[in-house]
Each structure stands twice: as structure tokens, then as C-alpha cells.
Amino acid sequence: QVQLVESGGGLVQPGGSLRLSCAASGFTLDTYDIGWFRQAPGKEREGLSCISSSDGSTTYYADSVKGRFTISRDNAKNTVYLQMNSLKPEDTAVYYCAADNPPLSTFNFVRRMCVAGNTYLEHWGQGTPVTVSS
Questions:
Q1: Per-residue pLDDT at 59
Q2: Of 28, 47, 78, 123, which is the most buried if we count CB atoms within 10 A?
């Protein structure tokens, strides 16, 4: 059974940093593309950053987080991370990770996961809340 568990969320001041973790159980994470998404109150869930399987050499970032967030993976720990720096109040949301196993792990599929993943991804974590406030 594919299970994803997010952790690392919490309350942080504007300008601060957090590192979120997405741990997998029941499957080997390194064969999956992994994406981070968030959903703020009253808004649709949006894709933030996605990373290709295996060595994670291909990544995609939404414009809203480019230059501030960094996605990475540690296959030995079966975990994908999202380092979030320079946090803003508008980053407040519940953050989710999701897994996908496309036929190819190319930039187009990684980007597709982030841009359209809400319409087809099946494996989601339960989410971890992030609040950015002074």
C-alpha cells in the first residue's frame, strides 16, 4: 500500500525558513516522481515543485516559489524534502506531497505533475500545515 507522510510544518515568522519532509512507506520512493502542493483556505490546491525519480536531476518550480523553495530527495531515507526560505504570509497553507509513476521521468512529465496533478494523481499524503505570521 502506497503511503506518504508529510512532516515539518508549523508556525514561522515572515522571512523565516522551514524544511518539510515527505516520507514513503509501502513502496520504494526512488522509482516515483514526487511533487509538493499546497492548499490555502478558500483556494484550489496548487503545485509548487516536482522532482523526477531516481537521481532527481529534473525539477520544476512554480513561479510563486522559484528562488525561495528547493526540492530534493534522499532515496536512502525514502524521503523527499522541500526547503522553504524567505517565507511570506501568503505561503500559509496545508502542504501535501504526492507520488507519480509516469512512463518517462522527463521535464515535461515532471512539469505536468505540478501543473495538472490535481486532476489525476492518486497517491497523496495527509498534509502538514504551515502558518507564516508575526
A1: 97
A2: 47
The amino acid present at 39, given as its one-letter code, is Q
CB atoms within 10 A of CB 124: 18
Grid cell, residue 118, equals 490535481
38: pLDDT confidence band, cut at 50, 70 and 90?
Answer: very high
Cβ atoms < 10 Å from Cβ of 94:
18
First to last CA, the chain: 40
Residue 40 has phi, psi (to 5 degrees) of: -90, 155
What is the pairing mode between strands 59-61 and 3-7? unpaired
Residue 80, pLDDT above cutoff 80 = yes
The set of cell numbers assigned to 9 is 510544518
